[in-house]
Amino acid sequence: MVIAVARRNTPKGKLMDLTSMAVIPLLLGSLGVFALFKLLQQMRMRAYLQDAVVVITGATSGLGKECAKAFHAAGCRLVLCGRNGEKLQELARELSGTTSHPKNTHKHHTVIFDLSDAKMVASAAEEILKCVDHVDILINNAGISYRGTILDTGVEVDKQLMETNYFGPVALTKALLPSMIQRGQGHIVAICSVQGKISIPFRSAYAASKHATQAFFDCLRAEMEPYDIDVTVVSPGYIQTNLSVNAVTADGSQYGVMDKNTMEGKSAGEVAQVVLRAVGQKKKEVLVTGLLPSLAVYLRNLSPCLFFTFMASRARKERKAKDT
Ligand SMILES: NC(=O)c1ccc[n+]([C@@H]2O[C@H](COP(=O)([O-])OP(=O)(O)OC[C@H]3O[C@@H](n4cnc5c(N)ncnc54)[C@H](OP(=O)(O)O)[C@@H]3O)[C@@H](O)[C@H]2O)c1
After folding, report:
1. Which residues approach ligand 1 with their CB closer than 6 A?
2. DSSP result, 91-128
3. Distance from C-alpha of 68 to C-alpha of 276, rounded to nearest angstrom
4. Can you name the CATH fold of 52-289?
């Protein structure tokens, strides 16, 4: 006790006392500012999403379906798009019957079209604008994946991937943009992939379509800046959906296998919440993945040769595993 009092009276002790006296209020102050910032961010996000008209492609399953639930819960008015009318109607009914979000009394619309058919996309855009008058947020989510070797894959399969994952979203975006520009507001979202940043062997057509998507929407973001149109690109890693089951193979047939990586990925609901926050906070880009894929993205840019060596080794291992 005596020693402690004596220490407090030394210049060093007095300085320590002063520091601890200053640090605690500073810490509490910073926490308060942070909490206030978060609260304001939440309020701004809620106001941005409440009653917003949101178009979601690929709403029949996986991430699109979960996005529909998340944006419905946020109070949005939805236009659910896909190829299967029955599934879309079922989802619209399910959402309308959700009593846990009494603030959302909107009637959701459904529009059926195949994204890989350019003519259908153009008339779908007209139908969307007829249904809802304007679009606040377009979520380009629909997509297909691919498994195969480049040598075995016909160009028709490459084209199919590009039509669905690239030309379809590009056409729909171009068809809806003029009305957004006319209103002076709008938000375009592209669900891309980590494979839009790095290329993994035996996924050539998919990686190519996602690289093209990333490039297009990056250009769009810059070009839309004067019109106040926001562009968000979300690049997830593996998500637990039917993407690998629905993937096409080298001859165009369905792959039909639930891959281990996909099964162990993030849940679609979790990723949908990331999409909701990214849109609500008007983020320009979000990478939704674990440490290793994030490191791989950096490695591709910082040390391409090392990255290529890893990918060649991965290709060798996968080929060996398939042969045995
Ligand atoms: N799952 C992953 O690991 C993962 C990772 C990164 C990025 N992504 C991306 O996330 C997005 C959603 O995929 P998901 O994982 O949710 O897979 P999913 O469960 O297979 O859902 C794909 C959706 O796209 C629709 N679709 C496919 N081809 C279409 C076409 N020609 N026209 C209209 N709609 C079409 C499907 O509709 P139908 O019901 O009519 O087939 C379905 O609603 C895709 O862009 C995908 O590339 C997924």
Report:
1. 58, 60-64, 82-84, 114-116, 141-144, 164, 191, 193, 236, 238-239, 241-243, 246, 262, 265
2. HHHHHHT-TT-TT--PPPEEEE--TT-HHHHHHHHHHH
3. 10
4. Rossmann fold (3.40.50)
pLDDT at 215: 98
Residues 238, 203: Cα–Cα separation, whole Å: 14
Instruction: Give the residue, by CA position, lying nearest to ligand 1 atom 18.
Output: 243
- List pLDDT tens digits, range 81-136: 999 999 999 999 999 887 556 667 899 999 999 999 999 999 999 999 999 999 99
Catalytic residue among 146, 206, 238, 255: 206
Q: Whose CA is nearest to atom 27 of ligand 1?
A: 143
Distance between CA 138 and CA 223 in Å, rounded? 17
Distance, CA 310 to ligand 1 centroid (Å)? 28
Angle, helices 204-224/155-162, rounded to nearest 10 degrees: 30
For residue 144, the CA-to-ligand 1 centroid distance in Å is 5
Atom from ligand 1 closest to the CA of residue 63: 16
Q: Between the CA of residue 150 and those of 18, 114, 147, 161, what are the distances in Å?
A: 68, 26, 10, 13
The number of the ligand 1 atom at minimal distance from the alpha carbon of 195 is 6
Ligand 1 centroid distance, CA of 114 (Å): 12
State which ligand 1 atom lies nearest to the alpha carbon of 240.
1
Going by DSSP bridges, is the β-strand pair 229-236/186-191 parallel, antiparallel, or unpaired?
Answer: parallel
Is 48 among the catalytic positions?
no
Residues of the chain with CATH 3.40.50.720: 52-289
CA distance 71 to 61: 15
pTM: 0.92
Structure tokens at 252: 């165009």
